[in-house]
Task: structure prediction
Amino acid sequence: MKKIILIIIVLVSTFNAQGQDFEDLLSGGEEHAGALTSAYLQPVFEGTIYNLNNGWYRTAKTHKTLGFDITVNASLAKVPSAKQTFTFNNADYINENSSVSLESGTSASLPTALGGETNERLVFRRNIQGTNRSVQQTVDAPEGLFAGEDFSDKAPLAMAQIGIGLIKKTDITIRFSPKVKEDDYDVQLYGIGLKHNILQYFPIAKRIPLVDVSLFAGYTKLESNYFPSGDDLKDVNINLDIQSFTAQVLGSVDLKIINFYVGLGYTGGKSSLNYSGVLTTRDDTTGIGTDLELDEISSADFEVKSFKTTLGASINLAFFKIYGDYSIQEYNSITAGIALSFR
Result:
């Protein structure tokens, strides 16, 4: 459950599973860690925003009043090849107080969190304010979190929702997860969508009973905190906020056993990752520790928007539905789900 629904939290914390401690990502200090984190995690956040806008519907048809459905679906967004790597230049990560550089060379193409493998190593140097000392730490450059796996370039997400029929051929769809709290994380997800049949306003609707056309709008918000622990971490918290929204025109043809549907419109959203607490970095040679105030690190902020086209089909077995679709957008994605529907 944690690894699917809370994919962002897992992707941040999975550094440990890759032999890369959490503190390695932030060792660039206040000046450089934010930029390095942003470059590395960009496709994770963007892919998740697109996924959150998937799975809202499987037909343009609305419920009768108080009809309802319960749906579980999963989406997989394909990361564009251009966002599976980022270019690391030493010159972009250096100032008078600190630097991040390649152990060998001045520039390299490094994998993002949804990229592949690398043998590169990074050297972090930082002057200690008020002294003539500096600390140096050398770490393996981060690899893709699922490097070597078949889905290394894909961002997954799953969720559940319920749709209820209101008056005037209008549905409301609710996504909600009660706040889940564990020792190292907490998370809450909620969203709301509205679908309204517009074909009802045209006299021709009575002549084409198998066809429906609707307007749809949906909003989803994911809030979470991740609390990594360790001897060199004090009160560390990674706060994540993701908001996604979509507006589409839906059309469907209901052939009873199977129906086909299409969605055309806009998809977008924004996310922000912020840090707090204290991280102690230790010099490679002396082992001397120096504290970093993580709230001084700039947040990792992303915003996406794209035109979206969705094509899908649903197999209807009485109350039980199986459906799947493909969305063409910046991160093309596939969605599949099951539903229990009572009209």
